[in-house]
Amino acid sequence: MSPPVSLNPIPVAAGEPPAAIADNPVMQALTWAATHFIGLFQASGETFVGLVTGILPVLIVLLTLMFAITTWVGEDRVTRIVQWAGRYAITRYTVMPVLAVILLTNPMAYSFGVYLPERQKPAFYDSAVSFVHPVTAFFPHANAGEIFVWTGVSAGVLTAAPDKYPLLALLYFVVGIVVILIRGMVTEGITRLLIRRQGLTEVFDEYDRAFLQARGGRAASTAPAGGEAGAA
Q1: Is 186 exposed, middle or buried (0-12, 13-18, 19+ CB in 10 A)?
Q2: Hey, which of 80, 159, 181, 197 has its CA 20 to 30 A from 188?
Q3: Cβ neighbours of residue 222 closer than 8 Å, sequence gap 6 or more
């Protein structure tokens, strides 16, 4: 016969506490995973609430303001200002991209390139795309999807010296304008060099003639209306 099985618990040495479940490495790992899994969504919710009560109203108001300004000034006047800015290199790579990014926001800002000849469009794109981050210092609506770049740049200053925050925003904005001017001039020079090296001068001359004809046609289409208005 087999010996009887004892139902008494395993004896524990006097003064030794029983093993706790929390000391189990598997349970610790599962607890850590559960805590951080829920914490991820809690942090996301807090960030969303912060956006709703913080930056989103600012973006909506700025978008409304830009739309109102464009409506009050008039689309034709804005177009004439952009066309004037495109005539000169210094305004083509400062005023024009700044207006494009602020009024049309990213990525619609690049459509202002339609007012430029083909040989100048790469340089305009380079200057405009380089301004979509500095512009968020004062006009976050212009590139709301990448505003984290400016908030990351300014976080340290905002924590260490909040009084220097406006100065940092101003410098960030002004330096951005200087950089896009340099990039635009350099890219335009590179574009002209590549056109000559690849023997595409005649092709781009034809593009320029077509551009001038199209611009002249648009001007002529508006001239009769102005003349009739003046005669009336």
Answers
A1: middle
A2: 80
A3: none
Question: What is the pLDDT, as a whole number, of residue 151?
Answer: 84
Asked if the peptide bond before residue 140 counts as cis, ω within 30 degrees of 0, the response is no
DSSP label of 147: T
Contact partners, residue 172, CB within 8 Å, separation at least 6: 134, 137, 150, 153, 154
Secondary structure percentages of the chain, helix, strand, coil, to 5? 80, 0, 20
Q: How far is CA 133 from CA 139, 174, 184, in A?
A: 10, 12, 16
Residue in 81, 69, 82 with CA at minimum distance from that of residue 109: 82
Residue 139 near residue 103 (C-beta atoms within 8 A): no
DSSP of 4-15, one letter per residue?
PPP-SPPP--TT
CA dist 215 and 113 (Å) reads: 13
pLDDT at 190 over 90: yes
Amino acid at 220: A
Beta-carbon contacts of 89 under 8 Å, excluding residues fewer than 6 positions away, are 184, 185, 188
